[in-house]
Amino acid sequence: ILMWLVSVMVLRPIVQLSKAIKRMGKGDWHSDIHITGSNEMVLLGQNLSWMQAQLRSIETQKHAFLQQITHELKTPLAAIMEAGSLLVDEVPGRLSESQKKVLSISQQNAHSLQALIQQFLDYNSAAKDDLQALNTVELKSFLEDKLADLQGLALTRNVALSLSGEPVELKVDEMRLAMIVRNLVSNAVQLTPSGKKVAVTWGSGQSDWWIRVIDQGPGIQEEEKERIFEPFYQGGAKRQGSLKGSGIGLAVVKECADFMGATIEVKNISDVINSKENLENGAVFSVHFPLMELNHGS
Prior knowledge:
Elements: H1 2-25, H2 39-88, H3 97-126, E1 135-138, H4 139-146, H5 148-156, E2 160-164, E3 169-172, H6 174-191, E4 197-204, E5 208-214, H7 249-259, E6 263-268, H8 269-272, E7 283-290
Parallel strand pairs: 2-4
Antiparallel strand pairs: 1-3, 4-5, 5-7, 6-7
Helix pairs in contact: 1-2, 2-3, 3-5, 3-6, 3-7, 6-7
């Protein structure tokens, strides 16, 4: 009995410490840390609580800074893009062919920077655990509205962006669904070469519904299919254009999908379509969502 009591007194605080450290390692800065046992173990638990509070404060400051800096960047960028649009329309006067080429490069990079800034804003929002009200949307109209800005990015890259699917009403978390489709499509457009296309399709079944984004980029290496959802991970696929990716777009997708109870499936075109058809490379991202009951009477 004595040996059992000693083992409990020694092991219990160690187990408590281990669980607390694992929670912190997963980004849980809010759960109380309570360590029992000897004075030394209690003191260690108090120090761990202090460290948790410091990390929580740093995380809060980081998100506040990111929110501020991205909003500060959006205003001058909007002015630059508007000025570029006036030049494209030749409002100040006719442009030579060489001037049009330079302007095209400028517009393409401006749209890429706009998508990058939006990714940082999405990353900031996705990290928050706040619950959003579920609203009923007509999916086709919703996607057309949320992807309107990316049509400009696709146009400057000479990438065709198509949407196809049957009209369907769904009950969704609008904010997180918008972040999922925006980041998937932005990623697809920036990986797809000029003259190719990105397709967005959707459908529904008895218990779930899905959105699928298909690009004609280089595809995803097998060993990268899990890692691409890690924040700031840069895969081997080369983006088109001069701006490097942030490595957070797919992390936003994963964070939002997890929150909505959705699952993500990543395949290459060669995995889902018979290779005898001689189709080029490309990736297929499918997100499956649980079907929520509609309450038209409420």
